[in-house]
Design goal:
single chain, mainly alpha, globular
């Protein structure tokens, strides 16, 4: 049973390990899902306001995450689910910290009225 994000990530790796689609097929799925997400974002921004969607934006974000985990799993077939999940968690923490610092820097520039921020 899935209780939290760690359970969800572990389940996503289980699903990816069972999927017979090879790496390049997984990558094709990822690009398709990113395209669907882009359509939803464009619609939310008013560029495709006529288009109706069957799935909420959160569903498309989840599809992109699941497809990315599929790519990651197929890229390292010799790695265990635990190794992949541990590495992914560590990288998400590192990247989140980096993105947070960039966001804070952009906010400071915007608050100072610096053009282009």
């Amino acid at each position: 049973m899935i209780h939290d994000m760690n359970d969800a990530i572990n389940y996503a790796f289980d699903v990816a390990n069972e999927d017979p689609i090879p790496l390049m097929g997984q990558f094709a799925c990822l690009t398709a899902e990113v395209g669907e997400l882009a359509e939803q974002v464009n619609s939310a921004a008013g560029y495709l306001s006529h288009k109706k969607f069957d799935e909420p934006l959160a569903g498309e974000v989840a599809d992109v995450i699941l497809a990315a985990i599929g790519v990651y799993t197929k890229a390292y077939p010799e790695a265990t689910k635990e190794e992949l999940a541990k590495s992914l968690r560590a990288n998400i923490l590192t990247k989140s910290t980096k993105w947070h610092q960039i966001a804070l820097s952009q906010r400071r520039k915007r608050d100072k009225g610096i053009p282009g921020s």
